[in-house]
Design goal:
single chain; mainly alpha; 0% strand
Length: 44
Amino acid sequence: MQIVLVILILLVAIAYAIWRLFVSISTPSNPCDGCPGCDLKKKK
């Protein structure tokens, strides 16, 4: 039972990492995506 839970958690973590990578690659036009704020964002 513990092995099943560990495998399930690992699969969810890997799927989340792949999804975040896909999202970051598919929207490269906004360098401030996900950033809380900095001088570059205030200049726009």
